[in-house]
Amino acid sequence: MPLYLFKNPNKDEYVEVHQGMKDDHSFVDDNGAEWERVWTAPQASMGMNSSPDSESQFIDKTKGWSLGDSWDYSKELGEKRKDKRGHDNVGETYENKRQAAIDAKKPSNKKTKKG
After folding, report:
1. Quick check: is 45 in a domain?
2. How many independent structural domains does the chain possess?
3. Is residue 49 part of a domain?
4. 113 part of a folded domain
5. What is the DSSP code string of 1-66?
6. The Cα angle at residue 24 between residues 20 and 26, in degrees rounded to 5
7. Could you tell me the residue range of the domain that residue 70 belongs to?
8. Do the beta carbons of residue 75 and residue 68 sit within 8 Å?
9. Which of 41, 77, 90, 100 could cross-link 52 (Cys pair, CB 3.0–4.6 Å)?
10. Would 22 be classed as within a structural domain?
11. pTM for this one?
């Protein structure tokens, strides 16, 4: 059942009330005062549940974005992953692969032929 928000007409007090969509959206308190309905933006997010771990959702969402905007969004998702798990697993995996590629190109890591 959806939540509806009402404001006390006499003071700055609000209450959330569960009501059916077809119900009369009104609220009267124990003292007989009819509270005013407060209109808010809908909270529905059908089909908009995005996962900070989904590579395909990231690609779909950032198509046509500038590189800078994509990087900013990537950073935002990394912060969400960090808040959720305590670390950014996707960022760490990428950084480890990137560092391994750099290390592989270092002269000190290349095998030399003895002859």
Report:
1. no
2. 2
3. no
4. no
5. --EEEEE-SSSS-EEEEE--TTS---EE-TTSPEEEEE-------TT----TT-HHHHHHHHTT--
6. 105
7. 55-106
8. no
9. 77
10. yes
11. 0.46
